[in-house]
Amino acid sequence: QNEENWDFVLVSGIHEMGSEKEIKRKKFLDELSKKGFTIKKIEDTKLFYGVRAPKDIFRKYQRLRRKADSRQPNSSDHEDVEETARIRIVNFIVYNTVTPDFEKLQDLMNKKVFEAAFPLHKKEEIKRILNEEWARWGVSFKEQPIEAIRCYFGEKVALYFAWLGWYTYLLVFAALAGLVTFVAGTTVFSSSQVSKEICDANTTIMCPLCDQNCSFWVLSDTCTYAKVTHMIDNEATVAFAMFMAIWATVFLELWKRERATVVTKWKLHEWDEDEEELALQLINNFQHKPRWYQHSYFRSTIILILALLLITVLIGIAHTLVIYRAVAMALFTQSDVNLLSKHANTMAVMTGAVLHYITIIIMTKVNRRVALFLCNLEKPRTLSQQENSFAVKIFIFQFFTHFSSLIYIAFFLGRINGHPGHYVRIAGRWRLEECHPSGCITDLFIQMAIIMVLKQTISNIMEYLIPLISHQLRKKRKRPTKRPVMLGEEEEAEDPCKRHWLNNYELNDVYIFSLFDEYLEMAIQYSFTTIFVAAFPLAPLLALINNVIEIHMDAIKMMRLHRRMVPRRAKDIGIWLQILEAIGTLAVIGNGLVIAITSDFIPVQVYKYMYSPCTRENHTSMDCSTGYINHSLSVFRIQDFEPHTKVLPEFKGHQIEECRYRDYRNADDYAYTVQFWHIFAARLAFLILFEHVALCVKLIAAWYIPDVPRRVKNEILREKYENLYNEPSMMEYVTEV
């Protein structure tokens, strides 16, 4: 049982007697001894120092917290401090103890005096519960033991898993809606008039896709692509986009209620981080003066300029991907390989998506370093302020890394490439990509599908395998070979703590922002699940599958592969709530723009009600979108091609004089037709209407669902009343009356 009593373990290399490192280590341990800490030394391949804090430190903490928190009238100095609080207090004192050379533990670790400092995983009942009910694959669909997580890892970790569990639960509804939308697309809407016309258009000659030795092609060649496009781009998608805008709001509102319930149950609703920090500072050093809040407009300006500089670089990378796709498209079209030349556009988009994923991996590392540098430049006062500052910066950088290329595909692809005879070119040579005659939404679908699948599979495999392999290697490397026992010599009894401490040391180190990385991953996933979900209805389903795996994979990592995290207190998920709310607003704008601009929904509706045969004659049996494809293609005269364009004028034995291309332009001067402006006005009107309706629904949902449940409000009110009623001065007043 003795091994249970050590709060913290420090690990040091075996330094030479009298060396600088050995002297520095001794000075630090002497400082801890002066504060009343008990220190136990065990020698192995490394030196292990077990640290136990004196009881009066915890009594001081209880007294200070009671002064700050009047809602603890019944607690006494003799009550045991929770184990999570013990670890938190000891961790703070150990890391803030200053040697006579004005060095703290972190400075000594940087100088390799100490190698590691960590709290121990305990062999107790709560760990058994977590291993059986949480950190194994067999319980993937059971409720998480949040209370046990809190008692072992602290409130901050417990709140993360409570939030992740809640998000995953509500994803079930979004995933079902997305699946219904996708199935509806493949069944109800698969035989649309638009895709039927494309499949039947075997006499519609389209303009060449490249400038050099490219032949004309027949529109019906792209029949399969048109069918796939209409599976994604149909009336059900509009309803699904509206549903997801409401879902994002309802999810956050319901989470606020869940958080209020959980935090009130833990008696943390009025907990204050500043008071906690000041109490710990005073326990460590009673002469300590608080570190005051700082703000510098000059420093903020520098941070803003540097952040904008990186965002510009990230947008530049998106431009590079655009150039790659334009060049790849030209090369694939002219390729001798039939598969490449036939599916040049799809191949360019798919290879571009893989390249985009590689840039995401590289830029994530760059973004992290820059965000950390800017965060240190800002000089935040507390750890949570540092986390919040870091979170905002890295999320913005990661958002641009992930979405710049998607924004281009969604809103610019095929709209800024010019027209035959007057193409926009890169370096005066390569034409920008064009959209397929049935729309650009499939390109966005392919890009999102590839990035989401790659990101979730590869990232999850790496996230699990790297700590697992690292742990196995550490075990092999760190284990000492046992000294053989000589004849007649008794085997020395091993200290019971030694094996336990060594097992903990062999686990992977816990990074200060370990939990932060999990939140960031989920925030980016939430962006994919909501912002362009109109183009990729399967995103919530992929997110749901990922999260079911993620919860238990994180649990296994934390319980078996990583050292124990220092438990931290928290009463909410911090800045991440504001980030998720911002994503919710962006989701309304993004989906509105996808339907208004990327999708062919608006042009088809405009055609139906203004130009189709239904407007001239009362054809009840006719589909009103009949003739849409022919109407949406403009005519180009071959003689107007640019001089350097080399096209093969013959096609299947016929001399070609005219070809068609996707746009709304006149055949004589190639200026925009009236229909183009009608569609432009309709797109704008739909966008304004969609966003206002969606935002109004969001506001109504936010008002309709209270952030704090009535039961919780009444509980807090009763607690306040009882505290005031039981106040000694109040009791005296009652007896006098």
UniProtKB/TrEMBL annotation:
<feature type="domain" description="Anoctamin dimerisation">
    <location>
        <begin position="81"/>
        <end position="146"/>
    </location>
</feature>
<feature type="transmembrane region" description="Helical">
    <location>
        <begin position="573"/>
        <end position="597"/>
    </location>
</feature>
<feature type="transmembrane region" description="Helical">
    <location>
        <begin position="157"/>
        <end position="184"/>
    </location>
</feature>
<dbReference type="GO" id="GO:0005886">
    <property type="term" value="C:plasma membrane"/>
</dbReference>
<dbReference type="Pfam" id="PF16178">
    <property type="entry name" value="Anoct_dimer"/>
</dbReference>
<feature type="transmembrane region" description="Helical">
    <location>
        <begin position="680"/>
        <end position="705"/>
    </location>
</feature>
<dbReference type="InterPro" id="IPR049452">
    <property type="entry name" value="Anoctamin_TM"/>
</dbReference>
<keyword id="KW-1003">Cell membrane</keyword>
<dbReference type="InterPro" id="IPR007632">
    <property type="entry name" value="Anoctamin"/>
</dbReference>
<feature type="transmembrane region" description="Helical">
    <location>
        <begin position="344"/>
        <end position="363"/>
    </location>
</feature>
<keyword id="KW-0812">Transmembrane</keyword>
<comment type="similarity">
    <text>Belongs to the anoctamin family.</text>
</comment>
<feature type="transmembrane region" description="Helical">
    <location>
        <begin position="301"/>
        <end position="324"/>
    </location>
</feature>
<dbReference type="GO" id="GO:0005254">
    <property type="term" value="F:chloride channel activity"/>
</dbReference>
<keyword id="KW-0325">Glycoprotein</keyword>
<feature type="domain" description="Anoctamin transmembrane">
    <location>
        <begin position="149"/>
        <end position="719"/>
    </location>
</feature>
<feature type="transmembrane region" description="Helical">
    <location>
        <begin position="236"/>
        <end position="255"/>
    </location>
</feature>
<feature type="transmembrane region" description="Helical">
    <location>
        <begin position="523"/>
        <end position="552"/>
    </location>
</feature>
<protein>
    <recommendedName>
        <fullName>Anoctamin</fullName>
    </recommendedName>
</protein>
<dbReference type="Pfam" id="PF04547">
    <property type="entry name" value="Anoctamin"/>
</dbReference>
<keyword id="KW-1133">Transmembrane helix</keyword>
<dbReference type="InterPro" id="IPR032394">
    <property type="entry name" value="Anoct_dimer"/>
</dbReference>
<dbReference type="GO" id="GO:0046983">
    <property type="term" value="F:protein dimerization activity"/>
</dbReference>
<feature type="transmembrane region" description="Helical">
    <location>
        <begin position="390"/>
        <end position="413"/>
    </location>
</feature>
<keyword id="KW-0472">Membrane</keyword>
